[in-house]
Amino acid sequence: AAAEEEGADEAELSLLECRVCFERYGPGGQRRPRNLPCGHVLCRGCLEALGGPESRRLECPFCRRAFGSAETSDCLPLLQLLELLGPAGASLSLPSALGRSRGAAGPAPTGLGLQLSLGGWGSLVNPTGVAACRRSGRLAVAHDGKKRIHVFGPSGSCLQRFGERGDAGNDIKYPLDVTVTWDGHVVVTDGGDRSVKAFDFEGRGVLAIQEGFSLPWGLDATPESEVLLTDSEAGALYRLMADFQKGKLKKCQMIQSRLISPRGVAVSQTSGAVVVIEHLKAQGPNNGSTRVKIFSAKMDLIGQMDSFGLNLMFPSKIYTTAVAFDKEDHVIVTDVCRQAVISLGKPEEFPVFNPLISHGLSYPIGLTYMANNSLAVLDSGDHSVKIYSST
C-alpha cells in the first residue's frame, strides 16, 4: 500500500512539473504551462530556451515534431488545476484539490430514470442522430434503414418513415445527424453526397443544400429556425438561414473556422451560446481524443476542455460524441468510454462534472431534450432511443 501511495505521489509530482527543467508549473511568468501542437507540455521558460531568440521553427524535445512558436497555447487544464490547488498547492494533494472542486460546484442534479425505450434492432439500424420537435414532442431519428428518417410520437408510437435510400435528389445516401426546426422541418446531413436536406414531417423534401461542403456533419436548430452546421473536413461552423416553407436558402454563413474535425454541435435556446465537439487525431490506433469548446452567442470563445483535462476531474478516459443544452442551460455530453451522460455545468461555470446517467447505456452517440424536458439518448449499441426523466 505504501508503494502504491508513493507511486501516486510521483504521478502527481510529474503532472505538476515541467518534464524538461523539473520546476513546478505556475500561473504566470516563465513557469506558465504551454501546449505544443503534438500534445506535450512545457513551461514557457523551456519553450523560449528551446527556440532561442531567432528561431521560428522549434522541435518537441520528446517526439521531435517540428512546429512554429505561434502554434503553442496555454495549457488550460493545468492552469485550472493550479488555480484549484491555490497558494497551498505545495502541501495540498491532487485528489483533495479535485474533491474540493467537485464540492464547490454544488450538489449533483437529481438522477434520471429510464422511462421508455424506442426502436431496437430491425426498427432502427445503426442510428446516427436524434432530434426532438420542441412544440409537438415528436422525435426524429436518422439511421441506416431503407427509409432513413424514423419519426416517433410523444408516446413512442411510430408516426412516419421517410427519406428513401437512393440517388434521387431528395433521397438520403448516408445520414450523419438530424435536427428539427421550430417551424417543424426535419433537417439531415447527408455524408453520401455532402449535402444538407430538409423535409416536412410528412416526408416531403423541401430543400437540398450543396454549398461546397466538404463533410457536413453535426446539426442543431435555433429558436428562429436557423440551423447551425459543422463541416468536419473543412473545420468550420456554418449558420444556415432558409425559408423552409418555400424551399429557399437565404444565406449560408461561416461563423467559425480553424476547428479540428468538428462534429457534434448544440445551441442554447435561451442564451444563444454554442458548444462544439472537436475530434482530435493522434498517431497510432485508438489514440484519438475529443475537445469540448463553448462559444458565446457572438462566437467568442468562453472555454474549452479536452480529454486530458476531463480525465483530471473524472478518473477515466472520456470520449464525447454528442452535446445538448438542458432547459437550465447546462452543457450535457455523452461519453462512449464510460457509457455515460455527464453534465459539464453552465457555460459560465464550465467545467463542472456531474454524472446524470452512469448505467444502462451501450454506446451513447446522440442527445436531445424533449418538450417536457425528458432527455432522449440515442444508443447505437442496441439501436434504440432511451428516454429519461427526473426521478
Task: Provide the descriptors you would attach to this structure in a database record.
single chain, 13% helix, 29 strands, four-stranded antiparallel β-sheet, 391 residues, Neuraminidase, globular, Herpes Virus-1, 2 domains, mainly beta
Mean pLDDT: 84
Terminal residue distance: 40 Å
CATH architecture of the largest domain: 6 Propeller
Helix content: 10-25%
Work out the count of structural domains: 2
| Helix segment tally | 5
The CATH topology annotation of the largest domain reads as: Neuraminidase
Low-pLDDT residue spans: 1-13, 88-109
Description:
With 391 residues, this protein is mainly beta. It folds into two domains: 62 residues, Herpes Virus-1, CATH 3.30.40.10; 279 residues, Neuraminidase, CATH 2.120.10.30. It has five helices and 29 strands. The protein has a four-stranded antiparallel sheet with strand order 6-29-28-27, with no helix packed on it. Strands 7-8-9-10 form a four-stranded antiparallel sheet, with no helix packed on it.
List the helices and strands and how they pair.
Blueprint: H1 2-15, E1 33-35, E2 41-43, H2 44-51, E3 57-59, E4 66-68, E5 73-74, H3 76-85, H4 94-104, E6 112-119, E7 129-132, E8 139-142, E9 147-152, E10 158-164, E11 175-180, E12 185-190, E13 195-200, E14 205-209, E15 216-221, E16 227-231, E17 236-243, E18 248-256, E19 262-267, E20 274-280, E21 289-295, E22 301-306, H5 307-313, E23 320-325, E24 331-335, E25 340-343, E26 354-357, E27 364-369, E28 375-379, E29 384-390
Antiparallel strand pairs: 1-2, 1-5, 3-4, 6-29, 7-8, 8-9, 9-10, 11-12, 12-13, 13-14, 15-16, 16-17, 17-18, 19-20, 20-21, 21-22, 23-24, 24-25, 25-26, 27-28, 28-29
Helix pairs in contact: 3-5
